[in-house]
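Reviewers of the previous submission asked for a worked example of the structure-prediction workflow described in the proposal, so we include one complete record here. The input consisted solely of the amino acid sequence. No template or homolog information was supplied to the procedure at any stage.
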Amino acid sequence: MTDTPSRPPLPDQLSGNPRSRFHIEEVFEHEIGIRLNGKERNDVEEYCISEGWVKIPAPKALDRKGQPMLIKLKGTVEAFYK
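From that input alone, the workflow returned the following structure tokens.
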């Protein structure tokens, strides 16, 4: 018999930035996958399922605090545990 740990439900909006109010540490203890318009993305920094967007870091642009600027992509968002 295998003991599978219970995973917390994935929230509607989640951020990978620990300073964000949408960052939930318990969810990041497990590996998460994000699909945008049916294509799996590995560079998602934040997502919102109900509004249909993901934010990915810009390749070179940085904000005043040295963090990468985020680009918003819209479409059908699906979050899942790998």
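The chain has no helices and seven strands. We consider this example representative of the routine output the project will generate in years two and three.
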